[in-house]
Amino acid sequence: MHNNITTLFDALWADYVAITPSAQRIHKLLTGEENSARIVNDHVAFRTFNLEKCQLSHLAAHFLALGYEAKGEYDFKAKKVSARHFEHPDQTQPKVFISELRVAEFSSETQRIIHALVEQMPAQAVQADNFLYSGRHWQLSTDEYQSLISESEYAGWLAAWGFRANHFTVSVNHLNNIDNLTDVNTLLKEAGFVLNTSGGEIKGGESVYLAQSSTMADQFELAFSDGSLTIPSCFYEFAQRYTMPDGMLYQGFVEASADKIFESTNAR
Ligand code: OOG
Ligand code: NI
Question: What's the whole-model pTM score?
Fold first, then answer.
């Protein structure tokens, strides 16, 4: 396990921008070319299958070991996904959002493909220091990928990309020159980036103490066992948090908004 939060997030970021070049360009756009301003990450998200070898708790263990604590639980009924978020007592550290696909709720063909993938993974793989950015641990054919996305975009994404940060999230509250999500979105669109419009460009808002937007995932060429395909990789998210009546900044997630954020890796 990593014994340092900063080196873990640096490694996750390097792995993420390697397949998400737009995130690097947006980072520059928000910080200025000389990269003088610092971006604060609101959260980073991971996906997994709820099978014994790689279930959510194994990913969470890496963060619990770094002092993170389990917080909210979320259920995405239609997508057949469960999730939890984790916070560090040091509130300047990014939150972590981990979801897992409830494999047993899918068709027998989808279950067969997923089980065959995870079977190829050594049981100890989840304990490796670099597990959270280790990618795919199995052979995957283009047919298996197509079959998975026809039933679940989430399953297809995870089968193709494996274990890695699915997105980083800019904390809009901490930007120096922009103070609201609408202006962030305008800047991004003027620069030619494509936003996820499922459920509206801005998901949530002040009434739920969290407003979120995201880019649509980059298109990236990936090698499969029998050839290559250009498919959605990762996306970049932007979050603005609001103060609750008790004076505290809201730290949770919003199910209805998250449900739409997942769709940032859908085919387009
Ligand atoms: C997670 C989607 C939910 C949020 O901030 O609500 C989310 C995912 O796409 O894996 O990140
Ligand atoms: Ni997110």
Answer: 0.98
